[in-house]
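User: Teach me something about this protein's shape.
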Amino acid sequence: MNTGHVELARAQQERWESAYSRRPQLHGAEPSAAAEWAAEAFGAAGIDDVLELGAGHGRDAFFLARQGFSVHATDFSEAALDQLRHEAQREGLDDRVTAALHDVRDPLPPADATVNAVFANLLLNMAFSPSELRSLVAEIHRVLCPGGLFVYAVWSTDDSCSQYWRRREDGLSMHDGFVGRFFDEPLVTELAEQWRLDDTTPYDEGRRRMWRVTMTKPAPES
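Assistant: First, the predicted structure itself:
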């Protein structure tokens, strides 16, 4: 990672840490539409454990846990994870929801082919360079078992809110101190190399135009 990307990553981590500290339950208590879809997809595949990346304060982790999944939630904000752990204990879900501080720019902790499902709502929109984004998706591919599912949701370039974001280098945009990336269909397709691309569905959530993506890690050819 070059110096500019290091400084951007550090600044964004501090920005999110401050946001979670100032506004507990920043994203509300209701699950995302992506989490509701993921629960159906994981359940249909007979999966009962999920690695959630960029879990924030846990609104989707708790929803998945209430649906019967065991969830290991990670985020790079200690403030968000403190809220998640407290709420898990308060709701009696700490046997189903575990949490760990992790920046996904670093290699994912699980060993190769040991995870059955990965879920990420809006994480891939964050301030990753193109190479960081590709590396993250490759890491998810590495830790998933053959046949494992990766479900993610991201902002679309068709999102009307994108007009208020100021363009930066590397395809990133900035608004109110936050940096992110809007996804078009070619980028979704590019990131699906080495995967089976099962679903790419545009949808609306509130005022946002989104992509919902489901990918399967193929079994090795015999």
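Now, about its shape. The chain has six helices and ten strands. Strands lie at 49-53, 70-75, 97-101, 115-121, 144-155, 166-167, 173-175, 178-180, 196-205, 208-216. If you'd like, I can walk through any region in more detail.
User: That's plenty for now, thanks!
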